[in-house]
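Q&A log
Question type: sequence-to-structure
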Amino acid sequence: MLDSVLRVYGEDFDVDSFLAQYAELVVADAFRKGEQDMLGNPNEFSGFDVIVAENETKENCLQKVQQFLEVNELPLTFLKANTVQCVLDIDATVKATDEMPTSLSLSPQLLGGLHHFNIAVEFSAYPEMTGI
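Response status: OK
Response body:
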């Protein structure tokens, strides 16, 4: 199963003004430069995370990413114009018995959409948590 999170951040990014202007964007987490992160260190950037897909098959995950790009054209265009960093993190949970997660193919259409909004792609694999 796959998750996908859009991480948006910038050193001088006014996250509060942006989120007020684009209130339709469902934000999972927002952070501000100088505030403490979860490890107690000051954040170097301001930004937010949006959960695009959660616990989805690879087909559904990629479809949700494509839909997210289409539905959020205005805020994504604003972010691109203001040189804010945007990273789409697609992550897989890997079972201890598996050596690697399943392969993932991004279509030219999806890659083109990500490129259009200047969104980088990051792939992550996390071990399955057992006994919790």
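Response note: The chain has a mean pLDDT of 90.
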